[in-house]
Design goal:
The structure holds 2 protein chains of 2 kinds. Chain A is of the alpha/beta class. Helices cover 29% and strands 26% of the residues of chain A. Chain A folds into 2 domains: 3-137 and 278-353, FAD/NAD(P)-binding domain, CATH 3.50.50; 142-276, 3-Layer(bba) Sandwich (FAD/NAD(P)-binding domain), CATH 3.50.50. The chains are: A alpha/beta, B mainly alpha.
Chain lengths: 420, 131
């Protein structure tokens, strides 16, 4: 623990004690912010609101799970390079270090008029501002035969039990078997993630089941992130990886483990279907304004939900600005913009007119080497959007062991910045 | 090859280029170094330089510095790549060297180009003042 944090804790010990009991907003002498969703976006928002206000605002974080399981690095678990415990964290330090009131519950919807969140077990929780970070929902119903069969045909695109299921299926697969994965059309969570998964699964197969085949069936017209780098990475696995673009999945058969596309039918030993995505269910249930009936519409200075004053939406659930990926890193950056905007607003100030966010994404290509893509996004007042800075950001020249080490340090840092 | 963390200083060949390497706003590294020396202590005045048409946000430096936390720790308090309490001049010269390519890096040379000189000065000043 550092000096700053000790000072902070001394100053806010009384606050933390007061937070132990729920109170309704109208009875509060101090502002109360309700954050829904304890992923990279929501957890970071909760922490930074407490940190930057020096404990002057109360923060409740509603999250249905008791553990935080990181999507970044979860492909390494599937590839047998890390254990579930390595990517599993908890919310204890948000409580003990920062005095965030963490409520384990399911958010059922938002009452925008009352600025409150309906929950399954804690009734209605009201705040002066709401921040929704609901992540993504999987549209399994759009693939015939998939809904209800996600344990037989896992997506493993929200880390947790699904990650363990896919790992177990891969381990049980015989040498000479077929691992088939499908990729939805963009936008989806973590653009390079499926291609990284293909690489680490191929690495596992090449070292343990070398006669196996890995089919990558992509609804997109080609690899959508780090294209040249992934093409080179795939080539390192010889004929093991077969990449097929323009492959839109239509239906699956859980009994036979078959996948049906427009022009072909694939039979696999392990079928990993990453379904199309939309903003998390809370966005739909709360009646947020959605673009393409899928992603929440926000303003880029304060991430305010369109048409819902006092309600903010961040992270993967947001309709992205041009060139903005749906990533944990980006959600963590959204969180800091929204936390600053809310604290300004409570102080009677406009949001920062010049917000900046940036993104870094590492992808492993085997058990040691990784490569990155990075971008910096500045607010363009004329276009009222956060836009990538031309000439900034970029890609690795090639995957390297040095960047593999940096990737692990990145995870360590972002987990701490989000949860500790 | 870049070393772990990307802070390897390359041989002096690039030093010779220092005076001709231009930054996005057309100022040479030497010009930037001169400017650093007359940096104003007031964050408010510096902030005004970023967006002269608008009132600067009172927390601009803090907000900008927070974009670094994902890799350098909250408040720059990383165990591996700490920024907290480092002298402003040192941070600025490192950033300038990343931008010019004099410091070979895996990623910082790409990230630093996304920020304006004024933003980098605010960030460096903020970290240098943290304890």
């Amino acid at each position: 623990m550092n000096l700053h944090r000790r000072d902070f804790l001394r100053a806010t010990a009384a606050t933390a004690a007061a937070l132990a009991l729920p109170r309704i907003a109208s009875a509060r002498a101090r502002p109360h912010i309700v954050v829904v969703g304890g992923g990279f976006g929501g957890a970071t928002t909760a922490k930074y609101l407490r940190m930057w206000s020096e404990g002057a605002v109360d923060v409740s974080l509603i999250e249905r799970e008791t553990a935080f399981v990181s999507c970044p690095m979860s492909n390494l678990v599937i590839g047998g390079l890390k254990k579930m415990a390595d990517i599993t964290l908890d919310y204890e330090r948000l409580r003990s270090n920062w005095g965030v009131r963490v409520i384990t519950d399911e958010a059922l919807g938002v009452e925008p008029g009352r600025r409150s969140v309906r929950t399954a077990r804690h009734g209605e929780i009201a705040g002066d501002r709401l921040v929704l970070a609901p992540g993504v929902a999987f549209e399994s119903a759009r693939i015939e035969g998939l809904a209800g069969n996600e344990e037989r045909i896992p997506h493993a695109w929200k880390a947790g039990p699904q990650t363990a299921i896919l790992r177990a299926q891969l381990e049980a697969m015989p040498d000479g078997g077929v691992f088939a994965m499908t990729i939805p059309r963009a936008p989806y969570r973590c653009p390079p993630g499926p291609y990284e998964r293909a690489c680490v699964v191929a690495h596992y197969l090449s070292t343990t089941k070398p006669r196996s085949k890995l089919l990558v069936l992509d609804a997109n017209e080609g690899i959508i992130a780090k294209k040249a780098l992934f093409e080179r990475a795939f080539a390192r696995y010889g004929t093991m990886i077969e990449y097929r673009p323009n492959s839109t999945l239509l239906a699956v058969d859980a009994a036979t483990c078959e996948a049906e596309f427009e022009f072909e039918r694939v039979r696999a030993d392990v079928l990993n279907v990453i379904p199309p995505m939309r903003a998390g269910e809370l966005a739909t249930r709360s009646g947020l304004a959605l673009i393409n009936d899928a992603w929440a519409e926000v303003d880029w200075l304060a991430f305010g939900a369109r048409g819902m004053p006092g309600v903010h939406v961040i992270g993967d659930a947001v309709f992205p600005a041009p060139g903005m990926p749906k990533s944990g890193h980006m959600a963590n950056q959204h969180a800091k913009v929204v936390a600053a905007a809310i604290l300004n607003d409570l102080a009677g100030l406009p949001p920062n007119p010049t917000p900046v966010v940036m993104n870094t994404c590492y992808s492993f290509v085997d058990d040691r080497a990784a490569m990155h893509v990075a971008s910096v996004h500045q607010y363009d007042a004329a276009k009222a959007q956060l836009l990538p800075v031309p000439g900034a950001g970029g890609l690795s020249e090639e995957a390297s062991v040095a960047e593999g080490r940096t990737a692990l340090k990145w995870a360590y840092h972002i987990w701490a910045d989000t949860l500790e | 090859m870049a070393a772990e963390g990307g802070y390897t200083r390359t041989a002096g060949a690039a030093l010779a280029q220092r005076s001709i390497v231009l930054r996005p706003h057309g100022r040479s590294i030497e010009a930037i170094r001169t400017m650093k020396n007359r940096l104003l202590a007031s964050a408010f005045v510096l902030a005004g330089a970023v967006a002269p048409a608008q009132a600067a946000d009172p927390h601009l430096a803090r907000n900008l510095a927070a974009t670094c936390a994902n890799c350098h720790g909250t408040g720059g308090r990383s165990v591996y790549e700490p920024l907290v309490g480092r002298p402003r001049e040192k941070l600025l010269s490192m950033l300038a060297d990343f931008r010019s390519g004099e410091h070979e890096a895996t990623i910082m040379h790409q990230i630093v180009r996304g920020y304006t000189d004024e933003q980098l000065e605010l960030i460096a000043t903020w970290f240098s003042e943290q304890r």
